[in-house]
Amino acid sequence: MQQASKSPATGLNVAPLKDDFGAQIFDVDLQTADDALLQKVVETFHAHGAIVLRNQTMEPDDLMRFIQAFGEPELHTQTKFCLPGYPHIFKISNMVDENGEPIGAHNDGLGWHTDYSYKEEPVMCTMLYAVTVPEEGGDTLLADQVAAYNDLPDDEKAVLDTLKIHHSLVHFIQNRDFNSYEITDELRRENPDVIHPLVRVHPADGRKALWVSTGTVKHILGMEDEEAMALIERLVAYTTQPKYVYQHKWQKGDLLMWDNRCTLHTGTRYDDVKYQRMAHRLWVKGERPIAVWDASEDARKAS
Ligand SMILES: [Fe+2]
């Protein structure tokens, strides 16, 4: 890991997770942190795209207080896996109850994606807190979509900047290998298909990110399906090369949080017969993705 140093902006001790991406924050106990300190953590998150804090002890009320420092918490699609009394805290687990029923979502996050890409207003950020961790595997990988976009040739950026992706939850459910969702009329009603830009502009500072995702992408507007899916596949392979990826190896008490506007993420498998896992996931509501053409229009109006 790179050397920790005091951030001139916040005074917090931080070290990059990878090159210019992400920050591990040291010497902060989130459970006892006051509001001013939490704001510095929020500031660090917005500047770096992802944060890690280790050795935390977070009860459900602590998680709720922490997430609310970032915005309004988002509810989850599969309410049956939420912590009783805490509809904003979702359990990711391979554990079962006394009747052998799963108590959390298992293997849900496998495959490069960004959370709630099938919603009009996808979640701004995702936070995971490790309660029980497998001794090996079950890593979380984050791909820095800003660095990947910046490295593209200008002529390719110009083409990608104009593209629109059709995302569909139903398409996602129908095409994956394993399933914990049931396609009901209610699910269809609550999750109509949406169109989002392929390149997303960050509202904080205008940085641009590739915003591709596997799974929910049904097609790209104006392109033949085969050509569109080949492009998505090529871009996901490009943007998830090791040079753009931070791999988080979990320890109990870790808190990892990433900005879905400028990252893709995936989980890795673990031996779910040998090991148990329990992580708590919380989301913060987001805004409609800003496209390059929206940003240009805003700049034109402002001038
Ligand atoms: Fe996810």
From TrEMBL:
One GO biological-process annotation of the entry reads:
sulfur compound metabolic process
- GO MF term set: metal ion binding; taurine dioxygenase activity
Keyword field:
Dioxygenase, Iron, Metal-binding, Oxidoreductase
> Would the keyword Iron be found if you checked this record's keyword annotation?
yes
Q: Which domain of life is it from?
A: Bacteria
Q: Record keywords: Flavoprotein included?
A: no
Q: Domain TauD/TfdA-like: where?
A: 14-283
Q: Which GO terms describe its cellular component?
A: cytoplasm
Q: Which family does it belong to?
A: Belongs to the TfdA dioxygenase family.
The protein's name is Taurine dioxygenase
